[in-house]
Specification:
11 helices, about 70% helix, about 0% strand, globular, TPR-like_helical_dom_sf
């Protein structure tokens, strides 16, 4: 039921119907009941520590990814304040480094770097914009060399791979890598927001380098 409501709300957003989203979900956020924690505690009381550990890891993973997923829109909303943007991104980068999210969930990291690059470009801080795009390009290239665009755990989240396998599509989220690669390149090379940097040598070199690393042919 929850999934169906969320899907419907997503469709309304795609159709540019925000009022329907608010009517469907409400105009405020209610405190969330920690169902995952209750399930974990129940398994713990039953003496099934392995399952309790898995549930706690799933809960932590979901909350972590949800937090990171909110950052791109949050930084764009606050783009008019350079000081606020720095506070947001400094905390975001610490979080990304601490939990090694570039490897754990590179797609989430890409969205943060991409949003940061756009905001810096809007602020005409081209040096920082290029720095964010370099990070974006590095993660893009690394994602395909290590096949890390598929959902997976790591040494910290070491009990969640089985959970991913239960998804309808399994852990594999990328169906056509060639399309994804071209989309990654186009997002840098063809975004109008970056047009003000089109004559910068570093910008041109970065696009050429990413094209080479992703093995994109004309």
């Amino acid at each position: 039921m929850k999934e169906a409501v969320s899907f419907k709300a997503t469709c309304y957003l795609i159709l540019n119907r925000p009022n329907e989203v608010l009517q469907l979900l409400g105009r405020t956020i209610r405190p969330k009941v920690p169902e995952e924690d209750l399930i974990a505690q129940a398994y713990q009381m039953l003496g099934n520590t392995e399952k309790a550990n898995e549930m706690m890891q799933i809960s932590m993973y979901q909350h972590l990814i949800q937090l990171v997923a909110t950052i791109p829109n949050y930084v764009v909303v606050n783009a008019s304040s350079a000081e606020k943007v720095e506070v947001i991104l400094n905390r975001a980068f610490m979080l990304i480094d601490m939990y090694e999210i570039e490897k754990l969930h590179p797609n989430m990291t890409l969205k943060v770097y991409y949003a940061a690059a756009q905001v810096y470009c809007m602020q005409e801080n081209f040096e920082r914009a290029l720095e964010m795009l370099r990070k974006y390009a590095t993660v893009c290239a690394a994602s395909f060399t290590v096949n890390s665009l598929h959902l997976h755990g790591d040494s910290y989240f070491d009990a969640i791979d089985g959970w991913f396998a239960e998804f309808p599509l399994g852990a594999k989220t990328v169906r056509n890598e060639e399309i994804i690669k071209r989309s990654m390149l186009q997002s840098i090379a063809e975004n109008p927001i970056f047009a003000s940097m089109k004559d910068l040598l570093e910008y041109k070199n970065m696009i050429a380098s990413l094209k080479f690393k992703l093995d994109i042919k004309e």
